[in-house]
Design brief:
284 residues, Ribosomal Protein L25, Chain P, 2 domains, six-stranded parallel sheet, 8 helices, rRNA (uridine-N3-)-methyltransferase activity, EC 2.1.1.193, tRNA_m1G_MTases_N, transferase, PUA-like_sf
């Protein structure tokens, strides 16, 4: 059973807050935890959490504890005691999958990022593709990146994910090609989701990556793709990926792959790829 999820103060935005929360959340049962600020307000005023209820508090980076609410103060503060720490590898977002997302139209933004988060993405790289209608320039880029991160954070809480996906800095096709070259040189596998590809993603995964082994021991965490830093999938914007971009990313080491006979929207393609990877690795 899972409980409403809230993030400890400052998490996962600052490393210091993440480490401090990890120390607090790994204390033994009965240890007192305070939840205030925006998360406290959301718990007390929005969700109307009451004394006696169980909630999950996380640092957004995999450390969490189920806690029983013992007191409520005002509209934005509660006190709880740890019932149990959470050590469940089945809830860890692994294997590590990065999705390069061509900037979608604003009316598809929330659905795109919510889907990626719910399906287990680890990192999202915004990509200013040549056919992206949306353009990030100057101060707008920082504001847009912050909005992307906020959407991922709320989606993680809604889906009760212990890891909040990280939104990387904006990439152009040139910087993306450099990133893919370094990623594949380190052993990662990069794929371009494209309707004209010959091989399917599932076939390519079977060729490139053995499924994760399963031991039946819930204390193990062998869900990671062995001997690689993970998988990267490139998703184009509404207008698709140009031939020039495909060629440049292929030269950097990415492999075009197909997601079935249908042409998927940018809001669903990344999530569909994550679903295929999750099944391949035995996470689903």
């Amino acid at each position: 059973m899972t409980y409403p999820l809230f993030l400890a103060a400052g998490c996962p935005a600052t490393p210091q807050a993440v480490h401090t929360a990890a120390d607090q959340l790994q204390q033994p049962a009965g240890h007192t935890i305070e939840l205030g600020g925006p998360e406290g307000y959301h718990a007390v005023t929005v969700k109307r959490i009451t004394v006696g209820e169980i909630i999950t508090i996380s640092n957004g980076c995999g450390v969490a504890a189920d806690c029983e609410v013992t007191a409520i103060s005002g509209k934005d503060h509660l006190t709880a005691t740890i019932v149990r720490t959470i050590d469940d590898p089945g809830r860890i977002s692994a294997p590590s999958v990065t999705v390069v997302q061509g900037l979608p139209k604003n009316d598809r933004l929330d659905a795109t990022l919510e889907n990626l988060t719910q399906f287990g993405v680890a990192t999202v790289i915004p990509w200013q593709a040549s056919r992206s209608i949306v353009k990030w320039k100057g101060a707008k880029a920082d504001k847009a990146a912050a909005k992307w991160q906020a959407i991922c954070q709320e989606a993680a809480k809604q889906s009760r994910r212990l890891f909040v996906p990280q939104v990387a800095e904006l990439h152009t096709t040139h910087t993306l090609a450099a990133h893919i070259a370094a990623f594949t040189a380190a052993g990662g596998k990069a794929y371009i989701l494209h309707e004209n590809a010959a091989a399917s993603l599932s076939d390519q995964l079977r060729h490139d990556l053995p499924p994760a082994s399963t031991t039946g021991d819930p204390s193990t965490t062998d869900h990671q793709i062995p001997h690689t830093p993970g998988v990267l999938c490139v998703v184009g914007p509404e207008g698709g990926i140009s031939d020039k971009e495909v060629d440049e990313l292929k030269q950097a080491g990415a492999q075009p792959v197909l997601l079935g006979a249908e042409v998927l929207r940018t809001a669903t393609a990344g999530a569909a790829a994550l679903a295929v990877i999750n099944v391949h690795q035995g996470r689903w």
